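Protocol check, entry for the methods section draft. Step 1: assemble the input record (protein sequence plus ligand SMILES). Step 2: submit for complex structure prediction. Step 3: store the structure tokens unaltered in the notebook. Ligand used here: pyridoxal-5'-phosphate. Step 1 record:
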Amino acid sequence: MSDVTSRLAAVRLRVRSAAQAAGRDPASVRLLAVSKTKPVELIREAYAAGQRDFGENYVQELARKAEALADLPDLRFHMIGHLQRNKVRQVVRVVSAVHTVDSTRLAEELGKRAGSCPVLPERRIPSAVDGRLPVLVEVNVGGEAQKSGCPPADLGSVINAIQAEPSLCLAGLMTVPPHTDDPAGARPFFDALVALRDAHGGAERLPELSMGMTHDLEQAVAAGATWVRIGTAIFGPRTT
Ligand SMILES: *Cc1c(COP(=O)(O)O)cnc(C)c1O
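Step 3, stored output:
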């Protein structure tokens, strides 16, 4: 027994407190447990403690874990790492959502492949429609050269490419802000994502905002996050 259960409880408390401090309904912020590089035993422990949504970054690892955890039909994997088009086929078979669509070509490939792999009812996240695959557009709000995510100027065309695919549903926007030692430094980037959402149809069209990690979850919740992606605070530091 590791301390995942107690860490998870502490993170839930952090999310709830942040929501209350921001005058938001705590149920409007969902927790994505980022399990990359961590063994399936720890995922099972979090599952036993009620956690259902898990984020993974690497396709090979995601496929291996999905197979190892196939006995848990309502466990939901979210792809949160950079996705190459030649890996899309492996991903659509096992995920409940993709947070990292950053080009029209990736949207087209996902649309093509998701058509033959409807998301099973027990694996659907709340914003999913029918068996369609919910996808979020990753936006590089900080304009960092080494980071993935589409430039804000391309957002409109990526959104349109997603909406042109009958097997995808447009769920919202995602970002990873530039690192700042002070978590408050992330806030302007979260606010920038909210402004982009408002400029592209608002919450009606883009209901989900995936933003906030261990270091800056309070800032993200204050700005309006609907999914926070938390790894270290739940599973401990990563060594690889
Ligand atoms: C690893 C990762 C996280 C989790 O980061 P922590 O700081 O460990 O909470 C969240 N989002 C993405 C995209 C990641 O790659």
